[in-house]
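Repro:
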Amino acid sequence: MQLVAASKMKRAQDAALAGRPYAQLLARIMGPVADGVFDFTHPFMEERTVKTRGIILVSTDKGLCGGLNGNLFRELPAKDESIKYITIGRKASQYVSRSGRDLIADFTVSDSTTFPEVKTVIEFAIKAFSEGTIDTLEVLYSAFINTLKQEPRLFPLLPISGIDVVLKSLGLENEEPDDRELNFEPSVETILSELLPLFVRREFFSMVKGAKASEHSARMVAMKSATDNANNLVDSLTLDYNKARQAAITQEILEIAAATASNS
């Protein structure tokens, strides 16, 4: 299981890291476009009175991945009827159902984590947001830091309070501004209206990819720890066996020597 997890981990890590340059380039495009808009409005930027929160909880389908899911579930808000949950992964749906929270949909995503699979989830969530079923959309997932570190993270996806939030989420808020004079066709508003939904979908896709990388990394580390513990246990039991065997042989030699001495 350690070897299988290690092979899946490498592919998942490469997939998670490969999408970051695309998201950063998208944010760099959105920055100059947003600078040319003053009275732009979009449904994704609509400020509402928050009556119902929506949270997408991304977990694993299987266990044996250490404390990954446990650490994730501890970050959940307290049980509240005003929070509705959408889950990815059987562990998340089971936990939400058992804890009596409001589960409105659950999905599963394969290890390959294709965009059409993830798009189904985010389209359902966007529809719920647009129809007013939920007033916010947040994503709770295990962010991939490195092989040994996965960090539970609650990311507010909708509504978008500003383009600066988008840039900050990608670590681009300190970049030098683009001072070039730019012309946009057909219009800045039209371009930004297309870029915002694209950003939301790609950002969510990146989160799910990172969660998969975290899953396989955590499972590989957990299985390595289990393998090491099993080897240590075998070594300890082998040592105890050899000690017992040596003691039995020594006892037999002493008994033979004592019997020989008594006969002579």
